Amino acid sequence: MDETEPTHTPVIEVYWRPGCPFCFWLRQALFRARVPVVWHNIWIDPQHAAFVRSAADNNETVPTVVLDGTTYVNPTPRKLLTMINESHPALRRLPSSLAAWRAFRRNRAS
What we know:
By secondary structure, the chain is of the alpha+beta class. The chain has four helices and four strands. Strands 2-1-3-4 form a four-stranded mixed beta sheet. Helix 1 (about 20-35) packs across helix 4. Residues about 1-5 have low confidence and may be disordered.
């Protein structure tokens, strides 16, 4: 199966920044769970940083996650995975943790 094939529709967007340990822990959990994600680096795009500030009392608190139109500021990996599993029980997951990492590497600058 071609891992670049757009068959795994992301259900969440994660706003993150390099060097953030909370972002790292969340990212690792999402990789292990093989969840398709749209990643937004707030240090690359000022609009992404502005979105995070609007959701986090004018702070750039990351990770900030959007799931089904609801924004969560710094959710724990366990809580987020539970919410994903409950709201998307038939989620088509990526084929492997490595595929999730590759997807992150492809769009980590956006």
